[in-house]
Amino acid sequence: MTTHDSSPLDLKLAALETAARLGEGRVTEEALASARQVVERARERRRLSADHTVVGFFGATGSGKSSLFNAVTGHPLARAAATRPTTSEPLAAVWGADGSEPLLDWLEVSHRHQLDGPAAGVEPSGPWSRLLGQRWTRKNGRQSDGQHGRTNGRQNDQPGGLILLDLPDFDSIAVRHREIVTRLAGQVDVLVWVVDPQKYADAALHREFLEPLAAHRGVTLVVLNQTDRLAEADVEAVTASLKGILAQDGLARVPVYPASATTGAGVEPLRSAIAEVAQRRSAASERLLSDVRTAAKALGAEDAGGVPAGVGKADEARLVDALTEAAGVTTVVRAVQRSYRLEGGRRTGWPMVRWATRLRQDPLRRLGLRRGEVPQRGMNRVSASAADDPRLHRSSLPERSPAQRAQADGAIRAFAEVTGAGAPDAWRSSIRRAARSHADTLPDELDQAITSTDLGAGKGSWWWHVVNALQWIALAAAVAGLAWLGVLALAGYFQFETPPAPDVEGFPIPTLLVFGGLAFGLLLALLMAPLVRLVARNRARRARRRLRAAVSVVARERIAEPVTAEIERYGAFREALAAASGRH
């Protein structure tokens, strides 16, 4: 088991895992499952031997795949036949067996042959011999010190191990054979596709395997086997035709090796290519990087590259305006204005007619919004405070009309459409869901926002007390004048001698008190009425601002912030995809 520092592959795997997590519910389940599988498979492959390169031989029935496998290994390991599938289970040729068992167990390859060097007849020279014949070379050309990995007391710079797999035919009539090929095509480090001159253009091979694996061209080799069946002049033409078809599959730069397992022609260049790949020990990482890029591409298949518009101040303001109206704020504002006018009339109007205003119910009290008053008799202040707690309090606003509900729904939908404009359809849908994530509780939260807002109910104006005092003084003067005149009239009726009432400029003071008090009170009431209306309008405007601010908090927390979070999630998803696919 080997450990790894943070490498480009580690970073891309983490980015792919992040993208899959962020894409849950937004990306197709098939793409998500594929990404998770890639991450899991990559981590398992890296946990196992990183010193071995696994090369799989894939081919159709009759392509000579097993014969080529034997020719490349230099050992008659695989059973070969020209007319029917002979490989029913994966077969492994292993050089450098130490540490390979867990890897082969993971590959589910039970048929294994451990080889120490090239077979008889294979020249022990060149890269193939240097890679596969280390033990053979030590045994036949040098003295070993008996310690693994050391020769003549010096550290041996031995390349990593190699595992060649002979696999069942991908076009076998046995379903299990095809399942094995499909599974191992996603697990091996290097893919060697063996074709023959008769079926190199087979549609099943190109459509079902080569095209989907085009992203793995860096770890793909193609062998045109059985060239001994072609005239020497035709080999180049068929090879060129095969390269053209591969280019259409997206594999333009994949090397093609003409070879013949029967004559041995072209086998040595193929051995060298495999040996070179194994010596680099990077095939596994290259394969996994290709898997990550492919999975990232699938996750972003529906991403047109657009950027959502995002939440703007104007968009949020329009949403708040619509919710303000839908929540019945206008009704509350009117109630605040009427409540102040009613209370102002009671405090500054002519005392003789104030009783009539008491027949009219306070509109804020009718809506359940008049709080902060002195506790009623029999109610202690703790009980009054609990009654005023907005969390325990609901308004008595009229039930939202269908038009108001439609207005709120339309505003939320419009907000989601505007802010999500530019995002792919799946993410626009998720943005719409985010905008409506609190739709069920939104009416109650708006109602609570209204009830918790200080509307200034119960708070009068300082000048009310002055006017009220003047009204009562004027009324007292009028009452005193009437009482004086009454005493004078009663004394005259009983024939009592009374001094004449004092006068001012010929007008008796009792009369002046009566008419002056009444006139002053009525005039003061008339003069105060416009002032009361003016202040009522100011109070209403202040209440609207406060209520709108309260609605704005709800709109931001329950609509704007979830939408913003979803848009940020999409941005993080795109960044993770870009990191996984290597775009930055």
TrEMBL record:
User: Which segments show compositional bias classed as Polar residues?
Assistant: 143-158
- Dynamin N-terminal domain location is 55-226
Instruction: Write out the transmembrane intervals.
Output: 469-494, 514-536
Q: Which residues form a coiled coil?
A: none
User: Is NAD found in the keyword set?
Assistant: no
Molecular-function GO term, any one: rRNA binding
Q: Report residue spans for region: Disordered.
A: 138-160, 372-408
Q: What does the entry give for GO biological process?
A: ribosomal small subunit assembly
Q: Which Gene Ontology cellular component annotation is one that this UniProt entry carries?
A: cytosol
- Keyword entries, A-Z: Membrane, Transmembrane, Transmembrane helix
Key word Membrane present: yes
Any Pfam family the entry gives: Dynamin_N
Source domain of life: Bacteria
Q: Which PANTHER family match?
A: GTPASE ERA, GTPASE ERA, MITOCHONDRIAL
State the protein's name: 50S ribosome-binding GTPase
Q: What organism is listed for this UniProt entry?
A: Citricoccus muralis
